[in-house]
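Lab meeting, item 3. Inverse folding demo.
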């Protein structure tokens, strides 16, 4: 099994490196190409790239593991994500695509904030860049942890070797190929994930003999496992659904919207992206519940619920197919790591180095700094991943909440509120990030429980950020004609579907 599976993984690694080399030759001559692909992304590539970088190892390991342990009550997260992703495509994608080009061709989220609000103090750029680097380093470490678990569970390699193998390939193609390499590899990885999350639950269903034996097996364990409402509180449902709020503030996802070739192609990207997401989420949920039935009925050994997909791929499929399915996990992991590394690198290069270290740096120098930044962030993430005490889901949830609360209200209001001010943006962003960190690491308890166990930190973080942004915005509302001119140009682009040149 191991030999055939390793062959499949080796072929997958070669494909990823080949794509990285192609992108290196195609689009890394300047920072705009390295960081945003020259805004020439096909809608299908943008959609699957956004989806693959969004879901990560959480899709094939974290969510099936949560369903395996808690049953269908954990599926509320998937419902919230579907709603949030749709609203992100509908509300944020077209306006952000237009506005970032209109706002002096902003190529990073901090760059957009500064240009949107004409912030000469550069505080918005600096603080948003710090939020990105801090939370993405944590987020990237979650992906590296998933890679370590994969190689440990599948091949008996040490967890530490798995960390370096996973990170090594990702760093190589991201470092050299930039945004185009990340987007094209994400597209391929999204296709692999799609096939895997259809194949595994269908084959498991057939092996178990269909609906009646499966239902009987689950009911023998606990009949409430198939009910979404059993064992969950109103706060629990709100906390799970609140994952959807995070979409509005995820830089590695919304940057794909900025890179779509034309404004009119955003709708096509939405149709493709939402179809992909619906099928894969159903597959992930089905993998968890069917995996529980399989392990119970066969007595198969499973020490870590987050590896249920790995177990099914090993015992139910030919080794070569099993290797392909393991590649799907790597695809999910690597697509997210690469996107996060590139956004972190973009922020360090464009938002720190270019503006505070070397204002006159050449395009070649900036691309080189971007590559070194990819390497630096990856090394820190690997170091954090050596502490394997946290689950993949908990690491992802913390970082997801941090971005959602800090950037979510800011992105939405900056795109829909003409009179929003720079002070409001700054106050809301700081409030959101600080609330999430306090909620996670608070030295107090609520009813004898940690605050994050009572309610997902996204809820108070997003709510307080939104309230503070609105209050400060109305108190300081003195929009200049320069601000409203860009906003009106963006609105006109929404009406015509064409971004007029400045």
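The presenter then showed the designed sequence:
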């Amino acid at each position: 099994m191991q030999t055939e599976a390793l062959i499949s993984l080796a072929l997958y690694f070669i494909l990823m490196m080949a794509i990285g080399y192609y992108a290196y030759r195609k689009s890394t001559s300047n920072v705009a190409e390295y960081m945003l692909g020259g805004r020439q992304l096909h809608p299908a590539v943008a959609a699957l790239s956004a989806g693959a970088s969004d879901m990560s190892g959480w899709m094939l390991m974290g969510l099936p593991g949560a369903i395996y342990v808690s049953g269908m009550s954990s599926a509320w997260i998937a419902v919230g994500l579907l709603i949030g992703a749709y609203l992100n495509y509908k509300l944020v994608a077209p306006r952000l695509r237009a506005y970032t080009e209109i706002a002096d061709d902003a190529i990073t989220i901090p760059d957009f904030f500064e240009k949107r609000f004409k912030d000469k103090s550069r505080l918005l750029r600096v603080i948003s860049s710090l939020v990105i680097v801090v939370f993405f380093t944590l987020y990237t470490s979650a992906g590296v942890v998933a890679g370590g678990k994969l190689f440990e569970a599948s091949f008996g390699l040490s967890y530490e070797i798995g960390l370096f193998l996973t990170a090594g390939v990702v760093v190589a193609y991201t470092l050299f190929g930039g945004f185009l390499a990340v987007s094209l590899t994400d597209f391929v990885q999204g296709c692999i994930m799609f096939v895997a999350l259809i194949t595994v639950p269908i084959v498991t269903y057939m092996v178990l003999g269909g609906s009646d034996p499966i239902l009987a097996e689950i009911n023998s364990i606990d009949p409430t496992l198939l009910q979404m409402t059993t064992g969950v509180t109103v706060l629990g449902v709100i906390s799970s659904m609140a994952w959807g709020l995070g979409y509005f503030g995820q830089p590695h996802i919304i940057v794909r919207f900025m890179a779509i070739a034309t404004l009119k192609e955003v709708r096509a990207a939405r149709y493709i992206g939402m179809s992909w997401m619906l099928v894969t989420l159903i597959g992930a949920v089905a993998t968890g519940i069917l995996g529980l039935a399989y392990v119970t009925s066969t007595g198969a050994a499973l020490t870590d619920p987050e590896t249920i997909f790995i177990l099914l791929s090993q015992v139910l499929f030919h080794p070569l197919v099993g290797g392909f399915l393991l590649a799907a996990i790597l695809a999910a992991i690597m697509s997210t790591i690469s996107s996060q590394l590139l956004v972190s690198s973009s922020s360090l290069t464009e938002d720190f180095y270019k503006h505070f270290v070397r204002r006159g740096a050449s395009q070649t120098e900036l691309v080189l700094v971007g590559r070194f930044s990819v390497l630096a962030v990856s090394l820190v993430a690997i170091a954090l991943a050596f502490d394997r005490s946290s689950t993949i889901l908990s690491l992802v949830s913390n970082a997801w909440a941090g971005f959602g609360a800090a950037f979510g209200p800011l992105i939405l209001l900056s795109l829909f509120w003409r009179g929003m001010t720079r002070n409001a943006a700054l106050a809301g962003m700081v409030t959101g990030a600080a609330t999430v960190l306090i909620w996670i690491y608070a030295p107090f308890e609520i009813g004898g429980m940690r605050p994050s166990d009572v309610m997902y930190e996204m809820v108070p973080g997003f709510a307080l950020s939104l309230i503070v942004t609105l209050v400060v915005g109305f108190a300081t509302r003195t929009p200049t004609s320069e601000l409203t001119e860009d906003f009106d140009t963006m609105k006109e682009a929404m009406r015509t579907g064409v971004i007029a040149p400045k």
